[in-house]
Design goal:
TIM Barrel, five-stranded parallel β-sheet, Urease, subunit C, domain 1, eight-stranded mixed β-sheet, 18 strands, 2 domains
Length: about 425
């Protein structure tokens, strides 16, 4: 079946998982018409029009497609500076393969937070790339020597041009930040990203530094708000997180070193937190083998041990939590293991919400994706097992993800082992 083929489909015998109320209802049906959900219920299925395909799921779980709100499909190496020295065609080819693998794991929408662009998003929309819907922010905005500046200490000159591959764009002063923000928005960016603190993958900054001056942050926030978009910020420490939230940053990536004062600000501003715990697990295990420079390897332990506690604190406080993986290069194969990690401190239903309902609200697609409401896009995943009883079901997609639909079209179907 080609992605453009969208017959009406009636699923029967499903364990229908509704992430909004955190329930899984057995012996259920769901009807897809024209790429949209047109009804669902329990018990006998309704009569359907001629030509409707009927699929008996025999008790398997039917749930909304997953959303990963922190991906880097263009990052072919953990050495993010390496992308500046590669041809755009190579990066695009790698990203195509990366996105298709994400789709096979059950992700029907992803948010790229540095590196992806309008061309990659359009390629997905037009079917040139068989991948999840791509919400992109373009290049992350960074001060000189900040987390988006991947030049080593011996490299001179600002050669992070907007047209070249790479995850960051170096700016200094509110005028440059404002111009860069407008340029990303000009390309159709769904959000803007700004670096608020140091990071692991950047070669010349400290994890505990604060980055981007207040007038620079305000300039980016103003431009996003003017375009009815939002700003997400890379930040680890409470000092950097709190500063960003007070200045209007709507979402924080990582947040491993937050404290109680941060939780109050998240709630006050109805802001979002996207922990990315699996990336530190994998950077610790195999970062060096995937190109992570030695200086960056030394930073991993600083954030690895605190991330799970930060997640627990945020969950107990009622912060808006969204699923993110942030994996680079060959480590992207472990994308779904974030489910198992979060399951150590969160109920399964809340972990599922982070990858569906909460993520959809963050990206401005509430009611469209991440839900089984009538009228929503038919982004659906069939999985063996019950993720609400065992979140590990979603952590092992190769074994448990059976079928993936995006906009009602089958995009991936696991081969029948028989």
């Amino acid at each position: 079946m080609t992605p453009s083929t969208r017959p009406d489909v009636l699923f029967t015998g499903a364990g229908l998982l509704d992430p909004e109320d955190g329930t899984r209802t057995p012996d259920s049906w769901l009807l897809v018409t024209g790429g949209r959900i047109k009804g669902s219920g329990r018990g006998p299925a309704p009569e359907t029009a001629a030509g409707t395909e009927v699929v008996d799921l025999a008790g398997a779980t039917l749930m909304p497609g997953l959303i990963d709100a922190h991906v880097h499909p263009t990052a072919f190496s953990a050495d993010l500076g390496a992308a500046m020295d590669h041809a755009p065609s190579y990066v695009a080819a790698y990203a195509s393969r990366s996105l298709e693998a994400m789709l096979r794991r059950g992700f029907t929408t992803v948010r790229d937070v540095a590196g992806g662009d309008w061309g990659l998003s359009r390629a997905v929309d037009e079917g040139l790339v068989n991948g999840p819907r791509l919400m992109f922010g373009g290049k992350a905005l960074s001060q000189t020597g900040g987390h988006g500046d991947f030049r080593g200490p011996g490299r001179q000159g600002n050669d992070t041009h907007a047209c070249c591959p790479g995850a960051g764009l170096v700016c200094d002063g509110p005028v440059e930040f404002r111009r860069a923000a407008r340029d990303q928005l000009r390309t159709g960016a769904h959000h803007l990203k700004i670096m608020l603190s140091g990071g692991v993958a950047s070669p010349t900054d400290r994890i505990d530094s604060t980055q981007s001056a207040e007038d620079e942050i305000r300039a980016v926030v103003e431009e996003a708000e003017a375009a009815n978009r939002y700003v997400t910020g890379h930040a680890y420490t409470a000092r950097a997180v709190n500063r960003g939230l007070r200045l209007g940053v709507r979402c924080i990536e990582h947040g491993n070193l937050i404290d109680e004062s941060s939780l109050e600000l998240f709630l006050e501003h109805d802001a979002y937190l996207v922990p990315t715990l699996v990336t530190y697990q994998e950077l610790s295990r195999q970062g060096a083998a995937n190109g992570l420079p030695p200086a960056s390897q030394e930073k991993v332990d600083t954030v690895l041990t605190r991330g799970l506690e930060a997640l627990r604190m945020a969950h107990e406080a009622g912060v808006n939590l969204v699923y993110g993986s942030d994996l680079l290069g060959g480590m992207q194969d472990h994308q779904n293991e974030e489910f198992a990690i979060r399951g150590r401190v969160q109920p399964a239903a809340d972990v599922v919400r982070a990858a569906t309902v909460n993520a959809a609200r963050l990206i401005g697609m509430e009611g469209e994706v991440g839900t089984i409401r009538d009228g929503a896009r038919a982004d659906l995943v069939v999985v063996d097992g019950d993720p609400l009883a065992d979140i590990g079901v979603l952590a092992d997609p190769e074994r448990n993800v059976r079928t993936v639909l995006r906009d009602g079209a089958v995009r991936h179907e696991r081969p029948d082992p028989r």
